[in-house]
């Protein structure tokens, strides 16, 4: 590597480290922002998983119903339980989709990374003034 570039990178690293040491708050905010992004991604992955699970169970139930049609003597005892499990999955999906909506209608404090709704004027966590930073998109369902 070119010596000059090496020195430059070394300097940049030093600056980054000392900035990290002196502004613990900023690092904390970055960490919280990363966490919120992670939470949102994880929520979306869970939505996908639950949808896949529901799809598999639909198939399963369809196959069971068809088997009892082809061979009426086939027991369909498990059907009620399978439908109950499907109800639970749909409830979970609704909850996850509500979370996803919250992620869309709320924004993060630029200072500390705390989530806030459109009704908030100041960050509830660090007190940062949020005027002008209210998320544009909101359904007005904030508490
Ligand atoms: Zn804040």
Q: What this model shows, in words?
A:
By secondary structure, the protein is mostly helical. The chain has one domain (3-116). The protein is 66% helix and 3% strand. It is built from three helices and two strands; from the N terminus they run αααββ. It has helices at residues 3-22, 24-70, 78-105; strands at 107-108, 115-116. Helix 2 packs antiparallel against helix 3. The model is unreliable at 137-143 (pLDDT under 50). It binds zinc ion.
Key structural traits:
single chain; 143 residues; mainly alpha; two-stranded antiparallel ribbon; 3 helices; elongated; binds zinc ion
What proportion of the residues is helical, as a percent range? 55-70%
Based on CA atoms alone, the radius of gyration comes out at 25 Å
- How would you write the strand order of the largest sheet? 1-2
In terms of structural class, how would the helical and strand content be classed? mainly alpha
- Element string (H = helix, E = strand): HHHEE
> What is the end-to-end distance?
56 Å
**Tally of separate helices:** 3
